[in-house]
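Dear all,

This email documents one entry for the complex benchmark we are building for the journal club exercise. For each entry we list the sequence lines for every component of the assembly. Then comes the predicted three-dimensional structure of the complex as a token string, followed by one or two observations. Please use this as the template for your own entries, and keep the labels exactly as they appear.
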Amino acid sequence: MSSATDGSTGGPPPQQGPVIELRAVSKSFGEVRSLINVDFALYPGEIVGLLGDNGAGKSTLIKTIMGYHAPDPGGQILFRGEPVSDWSVAKARSLGIETVYQERALCELQPIWRNMFMGRERRTRWGALDVSGMRREAARLMSEQMGFTSTAVHPDNTVQTMSGGEKQGVAITRALYFEAQVVILDEPTMGLSLSETRKTLNFIRSIKDRGRSAIFIDHNVFHVYPVVDRIVVLDRGRVTADVVKGDLTVEDLIHGLQDVARTGEWSQRA
Amino acid sequence: MSIDETFLAQGAAEADDGHPKADHSRAPSIWRRSGLQIGILAVGVVILVTFIIAAPDVFLRANIYQAFASTTPLFLIMALGLTLVVITGEIDLSFPSVMALSMVSFVYAFQAGMFVGVAFLLAILTGALAGFINGTLVSRVGIPSLVITIGTAFLFRGIELAIMSGRGVPLTDAGLAPVRAVLVGRYFGVPMQVVWTFLLAALLWFILNRTKFGAHVYLVGDNSISAKLMGVSVARTKTGAFMIMGMCAAFAGVVASFEVSYFWPTLGDGSLLNTIASVFLGGTSVFGGTGSVFGTLIGGFIIGALNAGIVSAGINAFWTQAVFGLVIVFSVVLQTLITRRVRK
Ligand SMILES: Nc1ncnc2c1ncn2[C@@H]1O[C@H](COP(=O)(O)OP(=O)(O)OP(=O)(O)O)[C@@H](O)[C@H]1O
Ligand SMILES: [Mg+2]
């Protein structure tokens, strides 16, 4: 594993076009305008930190990328330069976009293995559900990824029997399993212990070593800053800043966010 | 293997310096995993033994089991289909009307000179269409199933009554003999509907436990928002469950009509509570997300035994309902207590 822990600032390689791009995307829920005319791009091999106050529209943005929310008319989503049609979560996932949602998206009464493969169930050659294969795979992931003492792990346990951090572990492990080209993490460290948080941050950093990209949402700038290449700040549905990390220190970032909270404007310093 | 090796390596390293995590080693025991099923089975056995002790001369003779075997499938077939709908977190109250409406298709197709197999398929198709309408109104328009299927129950029944103008139709034509033999014939004293019930149970078990659709039925009923976030089509899954239910109702309608060789326009009346009781007695949760075909089979047997047993045991006619209700309430309570105990 090549270490990316030195905080190097190798900004995005813009030779290639973006993997995902949003153009003039708005999203309203009745009167509430959660996204207003958002332009956003994610390049291959790049990690973008998405910051903003509670209710700024971060989760709405990534759910729109995932196809869970349809953008208001006029907005456009592009995948590898092509405008998408019939965008849906199933389609986004089949094209290699996986998400750890803020709300975890687990089905608590179901066994762990069903949760791991939710929406992307494996099938046998004959087309039947590969139950034993999924069970085995879930057991392996739980011992190798989540660090449950091996042989010990049981994929038949229901999710409701797990602790909060363990549940989050299931959601994270699930997002990694499918070797996604784009990994979106919405507050993935929520409820995690220090060592689990460190593990998760290391993982996010490692994503780009393989030319894959990530969007990372977290309220803790000390989690975000060391990991990302670029920072996008949302404020009440609008993008107020889009800066390459190399251009600012962590203090700049904190001051910038405070300015946004106070005035709604990002005053660039450097 | 499709896993991130980096994360894997870090996970291993972390496990070295950190202490091992909570031990999830104990595989859920058979008791824990199948506690509910065992509870239901136990209740079934208790009821049967009680009947045998209460009225040995009735319950140790074959007669009662024949009555039981010919009538139980009529609602159990629908209870099996309804299980899927309830697991998705919905309910269907329109199936008694769907039984009758499907028979309208059958009778008209047959009278128009179509091959009896085609008439049968049209009946099943009618059930599927009724289920599609229910499912679409529930999952795409977003009307609570409890509300909308009361509406469609009246609608389907009304259409059927209007078309038939209240007439019944005898099913005694010679051309119908083969269907009768296949659907409700007796072989070695066993009514064919029993065989069909078991075949249907096997089929629905497979659909529920060994297909993607079946997996989605559980996920959607457990937490439809989570399922949707992960790319499961909630609307398609719910509509599918309602369509299966509609087809089961149509099948039950044809079987019930052939059992008496007559299509009564009131077909299905009286089947509502037996069917629903079978599903819930079988341990399928009214909240969705859990339930099993096996449980419904046992639930249906218990209801069937009650139907046959109470009458045969010579309980005063005015008391049958009270006894029936008492046993159901008792069963559910017992089942809950046993399940809770076993799971600990
Ligand atoms: N399904 C919905 N229906 C109605 N309003 C919604 C819905 N989803 C989000 N909103 C509204 O959109 C706004 C943005 O919400 P969003 O969840 O995107 O914020 P966020 O930036 O993720 O906040 P947090 O940091 O608290 O997670 C909020 O005002 C919220 O109330
Ligand atoms: Mg959020």
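Observations: Residues 66 and 188 of chain B are 11 Å apart (CA to CA). Chain B has a mean pLDDT of 87.
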